[in-house]
Amino acid sequence: MYRKRHNPTPAFRMPNPFNPVPGSDLSLSSSRPTCRFVLDEDLSTDDDKGYAYITHQYGPGLIHSYDNKICVLNPLAFEEEDCEEDCDKTYAFSGSEGDGGLAVWDTDNNWLIISMLAHQQWYVGKVVEEEIDSESCGTVVQCVYDVEEGAWHETDKQFDVYNPHDVAWPVDFKVMWFKVPGWENCGDCETDWLISPWHFTEC
Predict the structure, then answer these.
(1) Among positive and negative, which fits the CA dihedral 150, 195, 133, 137?
(2) Fewest CB within a 10 Å sphere: which of 4, 7, 39, 189?
(3) Gap between the Cα atoms of 65 and 56, Å rounded
């Protein structure tokens, strides 16, 4: 005979301990909810959305693809009801191609921007010519993703970068580089670019 589970506090309509989150209220995604991204094109306060690539993911759950270009939604800078029908809509965030930001997952391939790291411009690529020793300068080449071909390609843009880490990065090692306030004219090459490892598929 089936016995109904006992609800210890029926008068308060609290869920029983065997099912603390009722199925009708369970709306949590199985994918990671937050990411850091790099803009693939300029974004202005007139744009309701832009396009970017994921560089880091945070939180529990499945990993979103690093290869796919994502759509980043730009929230309004004011409440919707404050805007008349004919008013010009202004959106909260702006940035240049290569700028980094933070976003939370919305639906499908859409992410809602929650912060733009305007002072940091990011590039991704790999080490070329020779290994970059710890606390030394070296050369990297920028890579871009071709959506039509579905593959990463080297560009002709090379950068002098500084390695602030206590490990060396070998040739062809995949890296990202960016500027950080307070770190200027680093190393013998007097560069403003710092490198860190970055994980994408192929370049």
Answers:
(1) positive
(2) 4
(3) 11
Q: Give the domain extent around 172.
A: 123-197
Longest Cα–Cα distance in the chain = 80
- Whole-structure pTM over 0.70, yes or no? no
What is the 3-state secondary structure of 88-115?
A: CCCECCCECCCEEEEEEECCCCEEEEEE
In terms of pLDDT, which residue wins out, 11 or 19? 11
Q: Do 108 and 137 belong together in one domain? A: no
Please check whether residue 41 lies inside any domain of the structure. yes
Pairing relationship of beta strands 110-121 and 70-73 according to DSSP bridges: parallel
Q: Decide if 148 is inside a domain.
A: yes
Same domain as 115, residue 59: yes
The amino acid at residue 20 is P
Q: Can you give the pLDDT at residue 87?
A: 64
Whether residue 92 is contained in a domain is answered as yes
Last residue of a domain, one of 76, 94, 121: 121
